Amino acid sequence: MNESKATSAGLYIHIPFCTRKCAYCDFFSVTDLSLINAFVDAVICEMELLRDSPLAFDTIYLGGGTPSVVPPGHISRLIKGAVGHFDFGDDVEITIEVNPGTADRQSMLDYRQAGVNRINIGVQSFSNTALRFLSRIHTADEAAAAITHARRAGFLNLGLDLIYGLPGQSPDDWQKDLEHAVGFSPEHLSCYTLTYEKGTPLGKMKADGQVEPLDDDAVADLFKVMQNVLSRHGYEQYEIANFAKMPAKAETADQGTSFRSRHNQKYWTPAPYIGLGPSAHSFVEPERRWNVADLHTYLARLEEGVLPIEASEILTQEQRLTETLYLKLRTREGIDIPRLEHIFGLDFEERYGNVIKDFIQEDLLAIDDQRCFLTPRGMRFLDGIVEMLLNQRTELQKVKR
Length: 401
Hints:
This protein is α/β, with parallel strands linked by helices. The chain folds into two domains: 6-268, Aldolase class I (TIM Barrel, Alpha-Beta Barrel); 317-400, Arc Repressor Mutant, subunit A. The chain is 40% helix and 22% strand. A nine-stranded mixed β-sheet has the order 7-8-6-5-4-3-2-1-9, sandwiched between helices. A three-stranded antiparallel β-sheet has the order 10-11-12, with no helix packed on it. β14 and β15 (371-374) form a beta hairpin. α1 (36-50) packs parallel to α2 (72-85), α1 (36-50) packs across α10 (295-303) and α3 (105-114) crosses α5. The radius of gyration is 21 Å and the shape is globular.
C-alpha cells in the first residue's frame, strides 16, 4: 500500500434491491430484480471513474436494500472490482448484510469464497408476531437457520441486527429477544429503536392513528434492559446502538475491541469513506456528497460515463463542530478534548464547562483522562445532551423528560 496516501478509508456499496419493502424502512431500494445485472455493471463503471482516489481503504461494506437478493457471483464481482480499482492493504474487513429470507447454506459458502469475512444478519426479532408487524419476509426459525448456515460456512465474525420499541413491547418481551440472540453467541449486536419515518407505511400508520408508538419513558426502560442484559453476557457497548463481544482471553485493550465494526466506526470518527450505488454518501473532510436516489438515473448517468452525483456540500466549521460533538458522544470513548480544542480553536472548559458540570452531577456525562463521554445512563439522552451543549444551556428537565 502507498504510505503517502491517507489511511483507513471505507468503501460502501449500496445494493438497492429488496424482494419487498419493510414497513419501517426509508432507505432507497426497488423491487425490480431484473435490473441487477445492469446495476452491477454500473457500479464497476463508477469504480473506474473513481479509481484515481488518493485514499487507501481497509473496509468494504455491502449494504442496502438487501444485498443477499443479488446472486453471490455478482457479489464476488463487486468485491474483485473494488480490490482491483482501489488501494487496499492485506487486512481488509469485508461485510455483507443478509436477510434470513434470501440466504441459504450455499450462498453463505459462496460469500466466504468471495472473500467476505464479516456477516451481518438482519434478524430484527425472534418473535414471529413482531416480524409480521415489521413486514419482514422471514420467520424466527429461518433467522435461526441463517445463523447456523453462516457459522457452518466458517464465519467467525457474525453480527445480528435487532429492533426494539415496537408498540406494546414490554421489558420482558425485549429481554426474551435479547436472550434468544445472545444464545447464538454472535460477535456483534446492533440494536435499533423503531422509528416512524415520513413516507414509509409505518409512518403513515402512525399519522392515521393506526398504531400508537411507545412513549419515551417506555423506550428508555427497554434501553436499560438492553444495556443490562448485554453487559451481563460480555458485550461492550462501544456505541449507543452497537455492542461487541469481548474476546475471552483479551490481554490488551486493542484485543478487546476486535469485534467492533471497523467500517461503521468510520462514520463516527469521522474517517473518509466513499459510497457507490444510488443514494450512497461519500465524505472526505470537509466535503460531503451523495448520489442520485433513483436507480434509472443512476444507470443512465454511468452509461454516459458521468458520476451519478446528486449534490455536495462543504461543511462549515460550525457544522463540523456540531457533527463532531454528536458523533463522538455516540461512542464509548467520547470526545478527545485536546484534539477538539486543537481542531476547532476553542477552550472546551470555557465554552461548555457550565453545562457539563450539571451533566456530571446528574451522572449523564463523565470526564476522564482528557476525554468527555456519556455514562451508560447518559446514553439514553444523547440528543437532549448535545442540544444543551450546542446551545450552552442547562435545562436538565428537557434532557431527562
